[in-house]
Task: structure prediction
Amino acid sequence: MDNAVLFDARARVLADLQARQRATPGAVSALEDAVSARTWWAEQWPEGQVYVAGLVAQDVQDALLETEGRWPVCLECGDDVPQHALYIQPDLGGPDPLWVCEETGEPVAALGQLG
Result:
């Protein structure tokens, strides 16, 4: 197991949390839990390591939905559209995960590059 994959996933998701001012203690704890869970997953399926970053992002997104609300919300569509989320595409999370607008289906940013 290459720990660099896990460190990269953690750094990318943390960067996106910080970019949207959501790096709260609860969110960072959810991130740590997701990285820990995906460590075992990646050890069981070494070929799947390219999916880890996107899966960690999805895990954090799911955890925050339950505790703090939607993350990340789309800022691209403006005020004319009801608040909606971004999601990771492709669904399995890799190998090059992108945040995509839930409404338009348009890519917004690569994972770790939210502004």
Summary: The helical segments are 3-19, 25-44, 52-67. The first strand starts at residue 86 and ends at 89. Residues 25-44 form the longest helix (20 residues). Strands lie at 86-89, 98-101, 107-110.
